[in-house]
Write a structure and sequence with these properties.
2 copies of one chain form a homodimer.
Chain A: H1 11-17, E1 22-24, H2 27-32, H3 42-47, E2 55-58, H4 62-75, E3 79-82, E4 99-102, E5 111-113, E6 116-120, H5 125-133, E7 137-139, H6 151-157, H7 164-167, E8 178-182, E9 190-194, E10 210-220, E11 224-231, H8 234-246, E12 252-258, E13 278-285, H9 292-298, E14 302-307, H10 324-333, E15 337-339, E16 342-343, H11 351-360, E17 364-365, E18 367-373, E19 376-381, E20 384-386, H12 390-402, E21 406-407, H13 425-434, H14 446-449
Parallel strand pairs in A: 2-4, 3-4
Antiparallel strand pairs in A: 1-2, 5-6, 6-10, 7-10, 8-9, 8-10, 11-13, 11-14, 12-13, 12-18, 15-20, 16-19, 16-21, 17-20, 18-19
Chain lengths: ~450, ~450
């Protein structure tokens, strides 16, 4: 497999070969579409500065994708696939220029049936959600960017989100039913993967074929209520989150716990969260509402905000302050802040959370997202870090790992150095088949650099 | 509180006071309605032999229940409330005669709204399920007796069932929203309990007021598929069950695992389960179907039976062979067999299951029901026991307890000696208020015997 693609191309000839397909050559627009939200990381910001594609191609149909793939293969041009570019790992930033393949025009939803949707990769999560709700369903999980993010981008680069408290992570068996990808070969093919075979492409950062269509399971659309509960003590807030997570009779889609002063960065919500208090942001089914006060009281919490199911869509949307939107809102006030991504060990007494909370104090502000992992509710975390130096940031991450906290390092664009640690051999094998020239997002896989 | 009720009553006068309410005095019918399925236990069979009520009263409305309660209070007559009498703990058998209060005529369903149903105590679970499905919902959990069992009886005496793999147990916060009970006093009252207050009556075996109406949360009605998988090795079957339970992306409502020779007792299913194989009975959402083969293969299982969602209601219903219907079917072939009720400790490697399986061999045949307890999937079990003596049965239960297995002894009619161990002080307090003369199901609570 070629790892450093040939890249001496006459772009006029190249574009001419793409006749009929939308192409953007305007430098400012190309630069914009070569970006994602890796800027949350000062490390990636430095490493990826100035990296841009040569042109943007925006296919609207499978036939057009096949056409683009053939032309890219012919001219050995690197291809960086993107959806809305809401990711945070630089996976939409091309290291070696080439084509930015913007999938956001592929917006068909062929069908939504009882509990399953078939859709093209460029469909926005919010659009699918709205359509599915007509028949009583909704998406199982969503990133905080769900108004703009596409399903293809979410599957390629996401791990979970709002809904993971019930359905686990995107890569868990059952959360993705089928994928259709286009290969980048002299004669590109369309390959449909079903069942466990989807794992060959799932969460592979767009290096394993161009995802053009997906089949995903849906969740029942409950009437949801959004709630803020405040606490005087952080660990009590965290334990409340764990207890609600463990309550099998309570249907929920979000349990987020913020240590003070994180909520103070949410300007729109300051009236509901007194200074120096810690907060839990919850999305629960309406049927749980009468049961919450008892649980809140057990943990000395105070319900300060409640938006009923009928008012969904009005006013603020709590989900948009959670997951990595927490980092977004915080950085819009203080851009020197960065973040971690971590998964605490299975321990319902939350001892490691408590240790880290006290050990780092204000330098690492605790932001817990409770999710289900392998059948058990545990806290994931996107802690906010008051950044000083790269060395200190690495030290913080190493300390977590030494204490049993799994770190999915968001300060690297190398896939193996992030959450994956090691490329799945099946994925590598599949990559060799669908991308024989190594054109897809080159430079992001360590395993291919040493060949 | 009086614990041995006064019982010198002129039944003609008594019945005359019940004018307008349906009363059964025919001895054969009264004897029949004084029974439940405690006969699964040779101990209870002996202890409760010959225990019958004096008359059966069958109220159809709240007003009639109030009338009955007033008359019972006036004459200090014991009241044993029953639904369909499908329980197994003798809780429908009166120790001191009196009135059998049959609630099965109270069948109104005032409303079913998004995710919640309000219904009278005598509604059969299958009836509610059918009605709820019209609007896309169904009951969250059901006993294997769900075709005949009533919701009032299930809440009063049940612990969980088909569906508990997702929603936990009936007593878990969130699985019961409201209860309306009638007190047995000189001037009976109607009391509505909501939120956490429902726990004053939930799972209290009909001793804490006459449950007349309930509000319960519903579950989304997925298209369900029924499946049998067979295995050559029992522990592999058990580990498969645990793995499916842990798979957060797979929506399921039943994971039952039977050790050989249990499936050989299911005459209707013998063609699907070869001799000497162990079997998993599953009910999973249709959207999981393509993902199951991969998981089955990992555990060397063999899919031998599959009933699609469209065929639900046709042919055999796998759920009817699980939970305590396993015991029913087995005893219909070999009435000398009895059973245990237990909950294994949280341990995803299933070491205690393995130990018990080998330790007792064929004497205690393993029947696992995976359920969620406090946010984690663990195996409950209703092991089948080749009964020899009461002493040996007790020894078997003590051995389990000594090894960390929780036993809800189904061979006693004393509430505290079963699953509860100790009466909840809140429940006792509530009992004193709603049943000041101690007329409800007297003799079943140890805490009241010593007063």
């Amino acid at each position: 497999m070629t790892t450093t693609p040939i890249k001496s191309v006459d772009w006029e000839v190249f574009v001419a070969a793409l006749v009929g397909v939308e192409v953007i050559v305007d430098a400012a627009q190309v630069a914009k579409l070569s970006q994602d939200y890796h800027t949350f990381s000062p490390i990636l910001q430095r490493q990826l500065a100035g990296k841009v594609g040569d042109i943007v191609v925006r296919p609207a149909t499978e036939a057009e994708v096949l056409q683009v793939a053939a032309v890219c293969a012919k001219y050995r041009v690197p291809v960086t696939v993107r959806g809305a570019g809401t990711g945070n790992y630089g996976q939409c930033v091309p290291l070696h220029g080439g084509v930015i393949l913007d999938m956001s025009r592929m917006q068909r939803i062929p069908w939504i049936e009882a509990g399953i949707a078939r859709l093209e990769a460029g469909v926005k999560l919010a659009t699918l959600d709205k359509k599915a709700r007509v028949s009583g369903w909704e998406i199982r999980m969503a990133p905080s960017t769900y108004r703009t993010a596409t399903i293809g981008g979410f599957i390629a680069g996401g791990s979970g989100g709002i809904g993971s408290i019930t359905y686990g992570q995107l890569r868990d068996r059952g959360n993705l039913l089928a994928l259709k990808v286009v290969t980048i070969e002299d004669e590109p093919r369309v390959i449909e993967l079903r069942g466990d075979d989807v794992q060959k492409v799932n969460h592979a950062w767009g290096v394993n074929g161009i995802i053009i269509e997906l089949e995903i399971p849906l969740a029942p659309a409950y009437p949801w209520v959004e709630i803020i509960v405040t606490f005087d003590d952080f660990m009590t807030a965290a334990r409340f989150g764990q207890a609600l997570g463990n309550a099998d009779g309570m249907v929920k889609k979000l349990i987020t716990v913020f240590a003070s002063p994180i909520p103070s960065y949410f300007t729109a919500l300051r009236q509901y969260i007194p200074d120096k208090t810690h907060a839990a942001f919850l999305i629960v089914a309406e049927s749980c509402l009468e049961l919450l006060p008892g649980l809140i009281q057990e943990y000395n919490g105070k319900l300060t905000y409640q938006k009923s199911a009928q008012d969904v869509g009005k006013g603020v949307n709590l989900g948009e302050f959670t997951w990595n939107h927490t980092t977004l809102h915080t950085r819009s006030v203080d851009p020197s802040i960065t973040y971690l991504q971590s998964l605490f060990p299975t321990d319902k007494s939350l001892q490691t959370v408590e240790h880290m909370f006290h050990h780092f104090g204000d330098e690492v502000m605790m932001h817990l997202e409770f999710i289900r992992v392998n059948g058990t509710v545990i806290p994931a975390a996107l802690q906010l870090v008051r950044y000083t130096t790269e060395e200190r940031l690495n030290e913080i991450m190493r300390y977590h790992e030494a204490n049993g906290v799994f770190i999915a390092n968001p300060h690297t664009y190398i896939i193996e150095d992030g959450g994956r640690k090691q490329m799945d051999p099946e994925q590598l094998k599949f990559k060799q088949m669908v991308d024989p020239y190594g054109l897809m997002n080159p430079g992001k896989i360590r395993a291919l650099m040493t060949q």
